[in-house]
Specification:
By secondary structure, the chain is α/β, with parallel strands linked by helices. The chain has eleven helices and seven strands. Strand 1 (about 25), helix 2 (about 40-45) and strand 2 form a beta-alpha-beta unit. The structure holds adenosine monophosphate (AMP) and manganese (II) ion (MN) (3 copies). One manganese (II) ion binds near residues 26, 28, 83 and 267. One manganese (II) ion binds near residues 28, 33, 58 and 154.
Length: about 300
């Protein structure tokens, strides 16, 4: 591999250390299924010591301008991002796009087409819940959606907790809203090819989000990583709020094997619901190549 930094040499030379800068490249505002406004999210990240933050709302870029303004006012680094819903091999995966131009037409149109599908899906989810004696779920979920164009399973989960059907948002996903359970509606998201193409056309780089979360066997996971890299994917999330410590190690190893860079992000949604707060994650292991090691706009915040 060419031009990959050596942590020992970087530290011996006293250069800015890409393994130690506190970057958080995955989180959500109320423009998707987070609960905080972009400005409040940025302030919280700054208070937690985050040096560079990316806002990555699901299928939506509407919160980026507010977040960028807030970050600039605080002197904190900011990266425009998005988390795109993809259907691959019959399963849902998420691809994070970073350093995107949020106004690029191909990306804007692609994301709008994904959001358009969410309304009908939400109606079908509500119908399925009504069939097991839970009425009013569409209206209940919609009341939690900060962005009427983006109604997600998280909003249904909040409604199910409020209505007394579950103790917490996390436990909802064991009983409802997943395949084989009430409230699940099958859905086709974007293709992997389209998602990567939109990100690349918008000048961004693609990161495979929380790869440990997908229920894929070893063969399918390898096929996904291979296809992702062949399509121009740049990195996988190694350190994420969705991974266990064993998964940190496993995906660090896979990043090396597939010659992909590594990313780090909390996937923070809410102070009440999220296990990991903004920026409060271990650093990337020295064995991987940080996605941002040669990004001057990030490294200047070190
Ligand atoms: P959707 O894009 O509408 O399918 O909603 C997906 C969102 O649901 C994810 O981004 C998470 O925020 C949330 N979610 C999915 N599975 C879980 C889980 N097991 N625990 C907590 N939140 C989950
Ligand atoms: Mn989410
Ligand atoms: Mn995700
Ligand atoms: Mn996410």
């Amino acid at each position: 591999m060419l031009n990959n930094p050596d942590p020992a040499a970087v530290r011996a030379a006293g250069q800015p250390d890409p393994w130690r800068i506190n970057v958080d490249l995955h989180c959500h505002s109320h423009f998707s299924d987070g609960v905080l406004a972009p400005a409040a999210l940025v302030q919280r990240a700054h208070a937690n010591g985050v040096q560079v933050l990316a806002l990555t709302d699901h299928d939506e870029v509407a919160g980026l301008a507010e977040a960028a303004d807030s970050a600039q006012a605080l002197g904190m680094g900011f990266i425009a991002g998005v988390e795109i819903s993809v259907t691959w091999g019959g399963t849902t995966i998420h691809v994070v796009g970073l350093r995107i131009d949020p106004a690029h037409a191909a990306l804007v149109d692609g994301l709008a087409s994904i959001r358009d599908g969410r309304e009908g899906r939400a109606r079908a989810m509500a119908t399925s819940l009504a069939a097991v004696g839970i009425p009013g779920a569409y209206e209940g979920a919609a009341a939690y959606a900060g962005n009427p164009a983006l109604i997600s399973r998280t909003h249904f989960a909040r409604f199910l907790v409020e209505a007394g059907h579950c103790e917490s948002v996390q436990t909802v996903f064991g009983k409802y809203l997943v395949e084989g359970k009430p409230g699940h509606a099958p859905h086709r998201w974007a293709t992997l090819t389209d998602a990567l193409s939109w990100i690349q056309q918008a000048g961004g780089v693609a990161v495979l989000a929380h790869p440990g979360r997908y229920r894929l066997d070893q063969v399918a996971l390898w096929a996904l990583l291979e296809e992702f890299r062949e399509a121009g994917g740049a990195a996988i999330e190694v350190i994420t709020g969705s991974h266990t410590r064993d998964q940190y190690r496993r995906f660090a190893q896979l990043a090396l094997e597939f010659d992909l860079r590594a990313s780090r992000g909390s996937d923070f949604h809410s102070p009440q619901e999220s296990r990991v707060d903004l920026g409060e994650l271990p650093p990337l292991p020295d064995s991987v190549v940080p996605l941002w090691h040669d990004w001057a706009d990030v490294m200047k915040h070190n």
